[in-house]
Amino acid sequence: MQNSNWREQTIALRGKMLWGTTLGTAAVVWGMLVAHAVFGVNFIAPRPGDAPGSDWMMYLWIAIGVTLFSILATLFMIQRVTALYRDGVEVSGKVTKIHTFMGQPLARISYTYSVEGKEFTKAGPMDKALAEKLEREGGLVVLVDPRRPGRHVLRLH
Description:
The protein is of the alpha+beta class. The protein has helices at 2-39, 56-87, 128-137; strands at 89-100, 106-115, 118-127, 139-144, 152-155.
């Protein structure tokens, strides 16, 4: 039961980060389409010979493409994290550095872990409160893909 809680927290955290990148990008592109259609704002220079106002279709295709890519990237991430929780091997890791940004909800955490004598050093964004909790506790648990030890996910408590 507790393993399910870790999985949900990890997927939720990575989902928040994906929203800021892939899905957020799709929202910006759709906003560009609306700005172009409603206010006539051009973000892309029209091609020579195109009729005025005919470039909205290009904006639509770009928005649809970015949205499809965002959905596929999100589904791939969820599948990958779920596979690590199902098949991953637990190893202990150590927090080496936490860098917080004033006024920001995210922090950058650096950590190391070892698999079969080979040490891996990784870094990435994390929720600031969770990073501070990990810093107090010192150690962390890493779920590692047994076939590719560089592929991993932090198990959150």
